[in-house]
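=== RUN LOG ===
request id: a7f3
mode: sequence -> structure
chains: 1
length: 380
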Amino acid sequence: MADIGIVRRTLTQPEYGKDLRIYSMQATLMRAWVNRYVQILRMLFKVRARATLYLAGSAVFTGACLALPFLALARGFHGGHGSVENLVVLLGALINVSNALGLLSYNYGGFVASSCSFAPYRRFLRICDAARAKPSPLTQQAAPGVALLLDEVSLQYAGTQTPTIAGVDLCVRDGECIALVGPNGAGKSSLLKMACGLLEPTEGRIAWGRSAGHRKPGIVTVFQACAPFPLTALEALATDDAECARRCLDAVGLGFLGNQLDVPLSSERHGGRDLSGGQWQRLSIARALAHAEGADLFLFDEPTSALDPESETRMMHLLREMAAGRSCVVVSHRLALTRFVDRIVVLDTGRIVEAGTHAQLLSLGGRYAAMFEAQASLYR
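=== RESULT ===
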């Protein structure tokens, strides 16, 4: 059922429409939808066939229960032992028995259906019990002077053969800004999600300094994938302060939304309007700015990937001002940013392979130097 829902959503939701039409993907997805629908129909046929057999058995059983008293009564009348009074009493009793058997058959089907619907909930409770039985690798307090600590952390997603993160040790000190770089698939975003507490490591321990572990407002994040919430600008910023919302929107270049705080940011809603990908990324930066006061730890995952170069420069200056004097981890493929951080950590195949300043890593001539040279060569 989940697969057919995913295919149906892909076929019908506006965000997929452009690629579907340009690359003529509709026929392939329609075939996939039909195949899954046929599988569901076959499954339903088997279920209905079992239900039919059950009802047939119930009918035979009910018929036998009603036929036996009638047979006994007929034999009594044939032998001269029956009476009209006995017949009336027996018919009333048989009607009650018939109704009771019918209710039993009907309710038994409902009981089985209810039991099946509760099966996922029972599995969920078993998973929760198992999680409570083992100690959590997430702790709330790191040592003084440490904003974030990852101690021999590993992460392996279910159904995979190799870990995404393998034995990472990382300490972010108070007020330190770190750039996390590496090739695609190195595990940078997964590491950042663990740093937020959104994922629990399969091995190792994570600890936060001060109130950062509570994430209210200890941790402020900007993720690369910006969810286009079909909400108003005020709701999308997760604040009730209209003046604060206007200041933050103006700071990221979305000042025109300041007078439209109650307008839904989706054309699917009445009177709504759509934003571009870059505007949604600006809005996510504005949301971080609205919640930056009092934050201990800033975590940014490709926060300017959808912006043009000039806008990216302005947003990076804004992010640096926002996180000034506080701890910050930035994931970025654009290595020009690394010139302005305290330390660079290079991640490859889930492991830290290099760490140091920009100058130190260039002098090593290793993974970072090769990445930086490859990018710099495009601008010469």
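=== NOTES ===
The longest strand covers residues 146-155.
The mean pLDDT is 82.
=== END ===
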